[in-house]
Amino acid sequence: MIRTRSLVPAGSRLRRLAPLALPTAWGAVAVAWKFGCPLARQPGLPMRIATSVVFLTVGTGLVLGVRRGLARELARVRAVADAAQQVLLRPPPARLDGLALAAGQLSASRDASVGGDLYEAVATPYGVRIVVGDVRGHGLAALGAVVAVLGSFREAAHDEPELGGVLRRLERALERHLRERARDEHPALGGTAPDHPVAEEFVTLLLVEVAADGRLAVLNCGHPNPYRVGRRVERLSLGDPLPPLGVLPLPAALVPYAGSRLFPGETLVLYTDGAEEARDRRGRFLALDAVLAGAVGEPPAELVRRIQAAVLDHARGRLADDVAVLAVRNDRVRVPAQPAEPGLRRPRPAPSSHW
Known about the structure:
This protein is an alpha+beta fold. The protein contains 7 helices and 11 strands. The strands form 2 sheets. It has a 6-stranded antiparallel β-sheet with strand order 1-2-11-10-7-8. A 5-stranded antiparallel β-sheet has the order 3-4-5-6-9, with helices on one face.
């Protein structure tokens, strides 16, 4: 017979039991008082009151001791969860290849800092590539798809020269995740891949590439179009969107939309639909364009905070869906046309002669 040792150190177990030491001692005193002290067995109201006070004190001590131990354990679990969530949905760098970035997320699940929304931005030889996505559903249940899509994007963004190749990698990663999840939920399949793995789960996302000259290449899979904030607020028109990942296979040809440009000083605002679908008491949606109109000229970090505050205020803190916002401002300097050097003048054309 093989015996296994506990993976929890003895010192750690003793620290967990320490909060119960004082209540246990009080309980022992109360039992000794009740059954060992002759005064406690005497009839009369004073003795009953004294016995009740002793047992009430013991009970209060037990409750406080257990509560203190649980509070410490909860604090440790939250610290580990926060560290894991920061690795999963890490904040983007403040500056990336001449662009200023800021992002933030509001989770619809209580005490969770991440949920079913995702975002990431990386600098690659092909330009700055950005992804913003929304997994169907919200909260901690959607983290598996978030991990699959983000992990694939962080690799594919550097490896694939074409933006369409990145999107196909994301689609394959999500399909693998859905197949594995379906096998876990239906073990009777015997390890074979199901025909329709979790057909109700899908991901909408926006894949953006910002070139060195500010030109945008965009692939939209059923996601809300972004806003461009400059001298005015403009919602970009990106043509017909592709289907969300996980609903239908992507078409054979993936041609990014390339009809827009982010000029120096302009900000691109990408978000998930939870921002626009936040409702007030009367059921009215948030007017995100009006919020952005009051944020013209603000840096990305302040713009993200303004949107988050507007969403929480509009919904009175009761979010029905996760909200993710990522703002990208083009801080690249436009090089002006250089004047001609002194002493060098363009030759004047010779006057034409008339015969």
